[in-house]
Write a structure and sequence with these properties.
globular; Rossmann fold; 14 helices; binds iron/sulfur cluster; alpha/beta; 17 strands; 4-stranded antiparallel sheet
């Protein structure tokens, strides 16, 4: 295969070891149905859902079990046939604890859900669906951004005359180390993914579609480029290889790399006419629109040295981490840390009964040796004013100043240095020779700021 070099990039960033080898060549594998699932009522940005079912009620796979009337929210569905055992506080991978619905699975009456990619090919015509039909299916299917942020997709794609969108930018970078779920979707579910891309562009009114993909995925670039050619050029779709650099998949960084545009600080992409979606989200859009299926399953990468069987697994949303570990052959003896997500932006899991959510793209299993190599496990020393954190910050911030201000509870100074503009990419901590957990201070600062706002509001 000819070497493909992405020309486009953004200032700053860094190059952590990619570690994609654990799972990049493992095909998507549907997992067996667990005995119980725990579906969280908060898996997205916006209002938390309220349950629409009661204890002891029977539920069907795909049935809505939680909803909210708020504009920014997304409905929740059961991934299995079963009975509601409890509605209670459950561990949440990011916010600690939140309400969720525990469902005992009906063992006699559940088949392993298979992907629907076989239903799509190049003849798929997005014009068979109206904009209203697409937006309704996306809303009723509870689709959210599956790359991590969990922003409700219907809000992103539905027409907004006050903020018209011109370009649909697909974030196919998957720049975080270890994670390969989107890569496998592009390779194996190519036509389903492209169907979702074209449906989203139709709903959003975008004339141009650009697929930004890092140049460490030449096979996916080739597959997508050929598929786009087969579509015959009716739509303006281009596959754009970009340089492999972390965090190339940051929304603002990718817009800069592919489109040469800057999203103003504190603003969002639609203000400059851009709608950004990730790969898994597009596949989910296609499934919801063409088959009526809700978002109840997703592909999760399981990777790292501390798990017996790494791979890319198609799992029910609500499956507990411990059940997926058991399906993957268990932890190795050297296991020391489980991270939901990748090592740069993921969250360490303290409770293995934590359920997977719509935004859980990966579980990374680290050994003691890998953990002790991590910066935050090493002894911190005073800042030597080397300036490396400033050089790598993709948002052009002064990370050391912000961290210092947060350390001394000077939130006014932290905000003067644009605390809230930090995208929490972790580059500053990664390069700091003094091992200062700069991103940790910044995250704490944001939490303190949010609490202060709530108190005042
Ligand atoms: S300050 Fe924020 S955006 Fe800048 S490098 Fe650190 S974590 Fe990334
Ligand atoms: S990288 Fe670390 S040591 Fe260097 S200026 Fe930033 S905080 Fe200080």
């Amino acid at each position: 295969m000819a070497e493909i070099r992405g020309k486009f990039t953004f200032p700053g960033g860094t190059h952590p070891p990619e570690n994609k080898h654990f799972s990049e060549n493992r095909s998507i594998e549907p997992v067996s149905v667990p005995k119980q699932v725990a579906v969280l009522l908060s898996q997205h940005l916006g209002a938390v859902c309220v349950p629409t079912v009661a204890k002891k009620e029977a539920v069907l796979a795909g049935q809505m079990i939680g909803k909210s009337d708020a504009f920014v929210s997304a409905a929740i569905h059961s991934p299995v046939n079963g009975t509601v055992k409890d509605i209670t506080l459950l561990p949440h991978p990011v916010i600690g604890r939140t309400m969720g619905i525990v469902i005992d699975v009906d063992a006699e009456n559940n088949e392993i859900k298979q992907p629907v990619n076989g239903q799509f090919d190049k003849t798929f015509n997005p014009e068979n669906y109206t904009v209203e039909q697409i937006c309704r299916a996306v809303k009723e299917g509870g689709i959210v951004g599956m790359g991590g942020a969990g922003f409700p997709t219907r809000v992103k794609i539905e027409p907004n005359p006050a903020m018209p969108k011109e370009i649909l930018l697909i974030n196919a970078c998957e720049c975080e180390p270890f994670i390969t779920c989107d890569y496998r979707v592009m390779l194996e579910w190519t036509w389903q993914f492209l169907a979702g891309v074209r449906l989203a562009a139709r709903a959003a009114g975008c004339e141009k579609i650009r697929i930004g993909i890092e140049d460490n995925k030449p096979e996916a670039i080739e597959v997508l480029t050929n598929a786009v050619k087969e579509l015959g050029g009716k739509e303006d779709i281009r596959v754009v290889p970009v340089k492999t650099k972390y965090p190339q998949g940051g929304e603002r960084q990718l817009i800069q790399s592919v489109l040469g545009k800057t999203v103003p600080t504190g603003s969002i992409p639609p203000t400059i006419g851009v709608c950004v979606l990730n790969v898994g989200t597009c596949a989910a859009i296609a499934e919801a629109v063409a088959t009526g299926n809700s978002l109840t399953h997703r592909v999760v990468t399981v990777a790292g040295c501390a798990i017996a069987k790494p791979g890319n697994y198609y799992v029910p949303i609500g499956m507990r981490v411990e059940d997926l570990i058991a399906y993957c052959g268990g932890l190795t003896e050297t296991a020391a840390k489980v991270v939901m997500g990748g090592p740069m932006m993921g969250f360490a899991i303290a409770d293995l009964s934590t359920p997977l959510t719509k935004t859980s793209g990966a579980l990374t299993f680290l050994t003691k040796a890998a953990v002790t190599r991590a910066k935050h496990e090493k002894q911190q020393t005073p800042c030597i004013r080397c300036g490396r954190c400033l050089t790598v910050c993709p948002e052009h911030l002064n990370p050391t100043r912000i961290a210092h201000a947060v350390k001394y509870f000077r939130m006014d100074i932290a905000q003067d240095y644009y605390l809230s503009a930090c995208i929490e990419c972790g580059c500053c901590s990664y390069v700091c020779p003094a091992n200062i957990e700069i991103t940790g201070y910044i995250k704490t600062g944001k939490l303190l700021q949010a609490r202060a706002k709530r108190r005042l509001g």
